[in-house]
Amino acid sequence: MMLEKLNPEYRFSSLVRITPEWMHRHQYQVLLTDIDNTLLPRNSSVVPEAYINWLGRMRKQGIAVVLATNNGGKRTAAIEKQLNDNGLQVPILTWAGKPFPRAYAGAIHLLDESHLADSFDTVMLPSGVLAAGDQLFTDVLGAHLYNLPAAWLRPLSQNDFIGTKVLRLLEKWVTWYLTKKEILPEEDEEV
Question: Residue 154 belongs to what domain range?
Fold first, then answer.
């Protein structure tokens, strides 16, 4: 059923709650994550210090992070510059086209091209990749269409694009349905 495609395997209150230890415990080597309202608020181009530190910790503990966004342009370039200035080479797939599977294939391919994958023990297979984002209809659905497990995150701000605002209303209904069926994971479970 379509609604099950919208049900994440995990829920987190924040991206930084997905720790390297949690990733290792669940046998994930790669975190493919969204930018807007996941890594930083939608209209910001500055990655918060806590997330910079989190990215550094992920890298030091052998977890690759790939960013995929349906946006691009100067804002994404500013984010990439900030990450590079902090010694973080994080591949960013712009204009990704989530929820379509090509977005997830493109992000994994970008990781391979970045040569960051060379420092990981095994080949990047979908079984070692977790996708994360703040939207059910792009991030979770897209991950599931590409056969990846998904972590659904609470959005960093309520400032959304108009189309996203409509989807947020639908998310409330889906959340109600999944909760009623008792299949929606608890937030921050097993952290």
Answer: 2-180
